[in-house]
């Protein structure tokens, strides 16, 4: 780099040597350089931590220990006093993700409209160990009327006030609510909604450890998948609840490490 000399500027050098980061990267490294190669080495600093892959997460012993500890906590509580709740979306147009093709042919599914642009229903549901507890459906018209593109915090709190809390009052005392760490699940707001609904039965709200909902919540994969299959007319949801709780290893005596990769 030579300042003021044609063809030796940052942009010219980036173009000539095809630098991936462009002239901005060269300028950054030039300011960083103090005449030694060590000054150009990357240094760990603050800011956002490095993201890890799914494979790294799955093989991390600490990750599975956190899941195991949470499962042990849940196993000390009767399944009927564990109420899981979650949200999901169901598109009016739901195409199969797999198909059969002859060798050498590209896998294609001919559709009238991409599913990403299809009308969407938002579902909020809660179950305990033996039955559905409460649910709510936001139709495409509801989404349009409320000017929202998905479930919002106030929607969840309104559902608790009008649907979930009355259902719990009719069902059982001393229950624990289990949910993921979605930003719509604010503990203070949700507990206030139960208080406003005069529902003293809820002992507390517990958050599932990060990135482990599919291993702990019976709703996340098993029941929501069954629900979407039910919409295709296959089988009823209630028959799947007991199996979903077993798969989540939250029933008393279950092996909390049974699904850890080896």
Automatic annotation (TrEMBL):
<dbReference type="Pfam" id="PF03184">
    <property type="entry name" value="DDE_1"/>
</dbReference>
<feature type="domain" description="DDE-1">
    <location>
        <begin position="153"/>
        <end position="233"/>
    </location>
</feature>
<dbReference type="InterPro" id="IPR004875">
    <property type="entry name" value="DDE_SF_endonuclease_dom"/>
</dbReference>
<dbReference type="GO" id="GO:0003676">
    <property type="term" value="F:nucleic acid binding"/>
</dbReference>
<protein>
    <recommendedName>
        <fullName>DDE-1 domain-containing protein</fullName>
    </recommendedName>
</protein>
<dbReference type="InterPro" id="IPR036397">
    <property type="entry name" value="RNaseH_sf"/>
</dbReference>
């Amino acid at each position: 780099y030579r300042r003021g000399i044609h063809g030796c500027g940052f942009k010219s050098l980036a173009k000539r040597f095809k630098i991936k980061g462009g002239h901005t990267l060269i300028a950054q490294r030039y300011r960083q350089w103090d005449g030694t190669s060590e000054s150009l080495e990357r240094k760990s600093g603050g800011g956002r931590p490095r993201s890890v892959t799914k494979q790294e997460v799955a093989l991390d012993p600490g990750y599975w220990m956190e899941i195991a500890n949470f499962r042990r906590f849940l196993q000390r509580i009767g399944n009927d006093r564990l109420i899981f709740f979650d949200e999901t979306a169901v598109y009016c147009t739901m195409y199969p993700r797999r198909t059969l093709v002859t060798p050498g042919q590209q896998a294609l599914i001919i559709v009238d409209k991409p599913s990403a642009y299809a009308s969407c229903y938002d579902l909020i549901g809660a179950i305990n160990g033996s039955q559905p507890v409460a649910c709510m459906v936001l139709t495409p018209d509801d989404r349009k009327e409320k000017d929202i593109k998905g479930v919002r915090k106030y929607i969840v709190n309104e559902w608790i006030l009008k649907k979930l809390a009355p259902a719990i009052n009719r069902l059982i005392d001393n229950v624990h609510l289990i949910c993921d760490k979605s930003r719509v699940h604010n503990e203070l707001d949700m507990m206030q909604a139960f208080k406003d609904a005069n529902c003293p039965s809820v002992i507390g709200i517990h958050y599932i450890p990060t990135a482990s909902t599919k291993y702990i919540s019976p709703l996340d994969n098993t029941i929501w998948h069954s629900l979407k299959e039910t919409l295709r007319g296959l089988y009823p949801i209630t028959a799947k609840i007991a199996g979903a709780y077993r798969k989540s290893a939250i029933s008393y005596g279950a092996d909390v490490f049974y699904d850890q990769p080896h």
